[in-house]
Amino acid sequence: MNLLIYGPPGSGKGTQAELLHRSFDIPHIATGDILRGEVAAGTPLGLKAQPIMAAGG
Questions:
Q1: What is the DSSP code (8-state) at residue 30?
Q2: What share of the chain in percent tops pLDDT 90?
Q3: How far is 41 from 4, CA to CA, in rounded Å?
Q4: Where are the domains of the chain?
Q5: DSSP state of 17
Q6: For the whole model, what pTM was predicted?
Q7: Fewer CB within 10 A of the terminal residue: the chain, N end or C end?
Q8: How confident is the model at residue 9 (pLDDT cuts 50, 70, 90)?
Q9: Considering all CA atoms of the chain, what is the largest pairwise distance in Å, rounded to the nearest integer?
Q10: Residue 12 DSSP symbol
């Protein structure tokens, strides 16, 4: 099963994903967390993502 939860900032995406994870043992993969880690590590992906994220994208 694949689920995609999307919405604006503050809409509860992470909260709902965590509830699904706990209730059904579905992995919770937060792309924002992954990209922030890549930016912090200075990887090629992070260097591409940083200006987009800084602009709110």
A1: -
A2: 82
A3: 26
A4: 29-57
A5: H
A6: 0.72
A7: N
A8: confident
A9: 36
A10: S
Six token digits for residue 30: 């937060």
pLDDT (tens digit, 9 = 90+) per residue, 37-57? 999 999 999 999 999 999 987
Classify 13 as helix, strand or coil: helix
Tokens coding 26: 């579905």
Q: Which of 29, 11, 32 is nearest to 20 (CA)?
A: 29
In a 3-state reduction of DSSP, which class is residue 39?
helix
Tell me which residue has tokens 């709110």: 56
Helix (H, G, I), strand (E, B) or coil at 32: helix
What are the helix (H) ranges across the chain? 13-24, 31-41, 44-54
Position of tokens 């992995």?
A: 27
d(CA 25, CA 43): 30
